Amino acid sequence: MTLKTTFTMAALSGMLLAGIAIPAHAQEGNLRIRINADIRSSDPGINRDANSDAVVAHVVEGLVGYKDDATVAPLLAKSVDVSADGLTYTFTLRDGVTFSNGEALTSEDVLFAWDRYTNPESGWRCLPDVNGEGVSHVTDVSAPDASTVVFTLEQPTALFLATLARADCGGTGIYHSSSLDAEGKWVAPIGTGPFTFGEWRTGQFVELKANPNYSALEGARDGYVGDKTPLVETVRFVIVPDDSAAKAALYAGDVDVIPDVNNADVPEFKADERIDLQSVPGMGLTALLFQTQDPLLGDVRIREALRLSLDLSEIADVVSEGQAKPSNSVIPQPSSYFTEVQAQVPARDLEKAKALLAEAGYKGEPITWLTTEFYPQLFSAAILVQAMAQEAGINIQIETLDWATLLDRYTNGTYQAMSFTYSARLDPSLSYDMVSGDKAAQPNKVWDSVEGRDLMAKARVSSDPAERQAIFDQLEGMIRADVPLLVLYSGTRVSAAHAGVEGYATWPVGLPRAWGVSVNSGN
Amino acid sequence: MPALARYIGKRLLWTLPTLLLVSVMVFFMVRLIPGDPVQLILGDQATPSEVAQLTRKLGLDQPIPVQFVLWLGQVAQGDLGNSITNGQPVLPLMLGRFQVTAVIVILAVGLATLIAVPAGLLAAWKQNGRLDIAVVAAATLLMSVPSFWLGLVLLLVFGLKLGWLPVVGFVPFTENFWSALTYIVLPVATLTLIEVGVLTRMVRASAIEVLRLEYVTHARAKGLSERQVLLRHVMPNAFAPTWTMIGLVLGGLLGGAAVLETVFTLPGLGRLLVDAIFARDYPVVQGCLLFTALLYVLVNLIVDLCYPLFDPRVTAS
């Protein structure tokens, strides 16, 4: 595939130099967005992946949703009242909201969806986060009247609303009971979102149609909230697995938007004025992980020496094609908790690295570094790390795996070091939870610190931003001292649209949004 | 006819142990590949309890021999199970994708045969002449070009530069004939050109061999025209080995032309298989490979049954 990509790149570049005009294949009223794989289901938060989440979010809406700045705001709810003890959440539904089938949204619909979500048989992605295994334990849900829903929690948590809004939870979207057949089997979502579920042609596309009964929220489009009025009749998510083919399709006008552009393609798109390229910092992380239980890398001096041997800013710049600013915190840059403490980037110091290695008795033993070409930035990062570390006398051997195998090795903790990419976590306590934990129970955790886990537990229940910031700053210092991982940068979200597309905007969560977007075939 | 029926029955019976062997190999080998489908579905946010729950739900917590027996029992009833990735039944999913592959492959191999047979015959007839050198050079070039590269070049020229044909997508013939045609022109052309090279070389080699036989000299001595010699005496005999090659090519390609399907974004069987391998979607991988093996056996059976049409020396007995 690499060879193929190389050929394509060369061929495409050649054709572009020859000045190919973008053919006017664009269709007014129809927006075509590239996705790189088929969706897994249309059931919100159930048997899902990022593509499934993206599609479903156009059809169903939850009580709350994420804004562009990764904070949570009401969506189907008009207001959310939290009791003083933090145990009761009262949602008042917006007036006049109907499902796409014309039925009015009531609290009974919320209960119906919630009952199905919390049925262990449903396989809802976020069940552990509301049944007490994870961030919260919802002990009761009631509907005192047609427009009010009350959730009762066992313990207060700062993450309850954030959990309901999570894209991988399907935004805890509320769907009409007719989304299921008479036997309770899922058919297709009937929601309150700006689009209705049209046709899913496996391996080819998923087509959505504008919802004539959509009731827009006031305010400008903001993340998954605000005005989401559709401006096109249909939106088709076209499945194009190959990046090169997707690029060709964009130039040919066979797709209108590539929502997640490869870093390697950025310079070419950037240089082309016919392409609208947008880049924002994302909430995911690209990082280098160390196995702290490894006989060699268990020595913090060797991990520290590795950090000192690397020019982290240079690596971030090169592997992201200049799209990402270096960031070495597990808290992603767009987070409101990313402050000066998190923004510090350690400098390279080869002499100090060599001294630490000598002190630790390192004699050039090989360190196997796992990576994958599935995510090109991970492979590039490994190559750069190998070269830079060599200058300090560190012997890194790169082993390239396919993504499934790398993920398997990550999950089981069977590695010395690896390049890895974490998906988005929208709250800092979730970011810390992602990397920290008891290795005996969860071998995928890279940082095993009892003190750190205690602090994280405090951050999860506290809703005071200042208190939380202090906790996260303390955690930042602790994790940097232990060096169980080196974050390179927060992911970047780069989208490309051809000139005929108006209103498309990428955002830190990165999932494509088709509302508020129009296509002008004349361009 | 009874002899032919017995022959077909015997050949079909022989497919059963072949398929059983394939199923055993596929089932166990696909599980030897590192990587867990459950982890791929749940991603890096998975908790151990979620992994355990989904593993149980998918039946992957059972010992592998038990999983195999259960799967084989399903297969015996015509049920290839459901995709781990999207829950869809494997058999209809696979058959839907096969239709796409079949249309492209059959058209391409058919066209390639129509081009390769006269080209190979003419080259053999004019062996070592300018025409022969040109045909051999072209065939060698086409054989040497990777299919994805040729596909990309055609795509860039006809899709991007000229804008005559769509770059990605697929429309079934049942939906819109002319639109469907525009989507398959480039993949069919690519595959045709690649296969023309292979088949032309085959036809040429066979024809040269036949042209040296005494009965051809005898035919010429009788005063038959070169056209008659080539068409009536050389072509039928030279075509027999080519026919075997066509069978092998068809058998191989019908199982999926994964690279080409990826380049042209075609929802074919090959892409389904490749995607399933990357997703560790065991039921789909098993189903596709079993189906491919069955196709291969059946195509070659048909080829063998047709052989007597081209070579009278070969009979069912």
Largest Cβ-defined interface: A-B, 61 and 54 residues
Radius of gyration of chain B: 24 Å
Helix segment tally of chain A: 15
CATH topology of the domain at 93-279 in chain B: MetI-like fold
CATH class of the domain at 93-279 in chain B: Mainly Alpha
> Which structural class do you get from the secondary structure elements of chain A?
alpha+beta
CATH homologous superfamily label of the domain at 93-279 in chain B: MetI-like
The end-to-end span of chain A amounts to 33 Å
Domain Solute-binding protein family (chain A): 72-435
InterPro entries (chain A): Peptide/Ni-bd, SBP_5, SBP_5_dom
GO cellular component, one term (chain A): ATP-binding cassette (ABC) transporter complex
Keywords (chain A): Signal
What does this structure look like?
The complex is a heterodimer of chains A (523) and B (317). With 523 residues, chain A is α+β, with helices and mostly antiparallel strands. Chain A has two domains: 286 residues, D-Maltodextrin-Binding Protein, domain 2 (3-Layer(aba) Sandwich), CATH 3.40.190.10; 206 residues, Dipeptide-binding Protein, Domain 3 (Dipeptide-binding Protein, domain 3, Roll). Chain A is 29% helix and 21% strand. In chain A, the strands form five sheets. A six-stranded mixed β-sheet of chain A has the order 11-16-12-15-13-14. The radius of gyration of chain A is 24 Å and the shape is globular. With 317 residues, chain B is mainly alpha-helical. Chain B has a domain of 187 residues: MetI-like (MetI-like fold, Orthogonal Bundle), CATH 1.10.3720. Chain B is built from 13 helices and no strands. In chain B, helix 1 runs antiparallel to helix 13 and helix 5 packs antiparallel against helix 10. The termini of chain B are close together. The mean pLDDT of chain B is 87.
